[in-house]
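SAMPLE LOG
Freezer: B-3
Tube label: C17
Construct: single chain, 742 aa
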Amino acid sequence: MKPATDSDTEPDIEPIYDMVVVSNRLPVDYVGGEGADTQWKASPGGLVTALEPVMRANEGAWVGWAGVADREFAPFEHDGISIVPVPLSEQEIEEYYEGFSNDTLWPLYHDVIAPPSFHREWWEAYVAVNRRFAEAAAAAAAEGAVVWVQDYQLQLVPRMLREARPDLVIGFFNHIPFPAYGIYSQLPWRRQVVEGLLGADVIGFQRAADAGNFSRAVRRLFGYKTRGTVVDVPGDDGAVRHVVARHFPISIDAAAFEELARMPEVQERARAIRRSLGDPDVVMLGVDRLDYTKGIRHRMKAFGELLRDGRLSVEHATLVQVASPSRERVETYRQLRDEIELMVGRLNGDYSTLGHPAITYLHHGYPRQEMAALYLAADVMLVTALRDGMNLVAKEYVASRYDDDGVLLLSEFTGASDELRQAILVNPHDIEGLKDAMVEATKLSKRERARRMRVLRKRVKENDVANWSATFLETLTGVGKIAPGVPDGLRSAVAKLAEAPRLLVALDFDGTLAPIVDRPEDARSTTQARAAIERMSEHEDTRVALVSGRALDSLKEVASPPVAALLSGSHGVELQLDSGGDVTIDLREGELTRLEQLIEIVEQAASAADGAWVERKPAGIALHTRKLGAGAGAALQRSARELVEQELPGLATRSGKNVLEFAVRASDKGEALLRLRQHAGADAVIYVGDDVTDEDAFAVLEGVDVGVKVGQGKSLAAYRLNGPDDVAELLELLADARDAAR
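STRUCTURE (predicted):
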């Protein structure tokens, strides 16, 4: 049932926004008022902080629910962001949000810590509400816009958008875990949810394990081919769409939390908090939503047993537990609150003394300034979640500790544990181990605390929320500033790659090893890159391969490859696996006839445009339009494509940078890389390329393999470099690391 509207007609949404964010809740809260007097206030959070600059730069719109049942609000502007409210009825909130989202998906995705409920009417409400969100986003999005859908409440929206608006670039980020297939398979609507997610171009998860769970679910349910972080999704027209499914760990505005913690009034408030607790030696702190996944009962049980056994005393240590209200209309959460408050009362009754409480329990939320004071007041931060996508509280604590003090005790079942390895990591189900870790945290020396915290802070500051959003959107759109040099993440990946027993270093040539030039025959590798390649070619356990769209004869002429190099030309049609060995290509008689016809058609088309030229290849032909303007080049390519399709239908066609290629024998760089890998017996591969034709090679990378995109443009590669000079630096780093690993 759709809620009643405050007006007689539905508000129109202009499809003018190049960037649309879709989330269950808007970044603003309704304060009061009607019509023109309606008042809103910002509800700042990590997601809003991350996306505000992007939204303003792209004149973006935010689609979401206003938080008020049975009310419909017209679109409006708030603090430079266009807001598009989606109405929900009281019944939809009960069935779509409290029901399917939070009593079906939430417990299921958190490893069934609480049993999920499966109700068909909840599913029907979930479908209906997802469709309403998709329709609102489609109505707001401009032609070719980027739409970024957020979280588990809206998993069907990507496919709905894809069907309604195939022109859109669609991203999805799942803020909670994605379970192993044995758990996920319990969902009666498991296929529909995965189909919904596969409507996106990029699907982001918090942890690599979550992305792996999703890919396994795709294989089990649909049998689609998955290669590393890429899922091949076949379309109705037979074309295959590459969907990226990988982890993009979310973070916080670290600088903002540090700035708060450095404020004199916040520091004074931290001291006042400690005084109010009786000035204990150790303040332990837990900050959570009141949720059964957060392990609040486990930490309280461990703390109570430490007091019982005399390993801690209330004069020495106290626990402050902030448990903000959450989903209080859901029965499971009401029961949890009763259990926690009963436990708090019992422990305080058993162990508190006058002026020294065992547990200070606070069942309400606090503003960020008060949270920063609590973080500064706490000697030990307890994060004992039983399952958590990330847990940003752990990162907030680290960011606030500008004094390099404090200890983070962190559950290994949080996404944050993948990054914050200098925390004391615990299994919260192991109560004895948790107790030992809590005691250990109270006994760490100041020097050890400082050493751990410095490493943690460096990690949180380098990987803040702005970096998270930029990385996701860059993967989704290929647009973003690429800093010169080799980024830290790629340096780390190269160091790990260098440890592989047998390594294949596969490289595109034009635009990767050699700068793009007007005359292809003038292209040459940079001196630094060539030297690094020569060094790596001397290793018996390292094979270097050049993988190019050029014909092999042309590649040999411009690249002067090392004797030991493996060579692939004409997008994999030509392969030379041994120095001076045979080139594998064997066109049949019919293919040779079609090749002659193809050459005649394309050369005739090129003769009509001054500056265009044709490159003949063993199994095809390339029409180069680099010297033409962008408009004239595109027009010539369209004309040539139409002529070829009319006269020789069914030929393999691919577009590159200012080039259109046709081939009578279909092959691509992905197939070539697979053959090269097999021939080299490689345990790991690094592939570096700059063109859209290199995406086929990125798509076959897997495991510890590394893909590097050179320059702008949407890509399946996990890393980017600015140009050939940076490629040369990367190869030099790899050669050094390979030398050191010998």
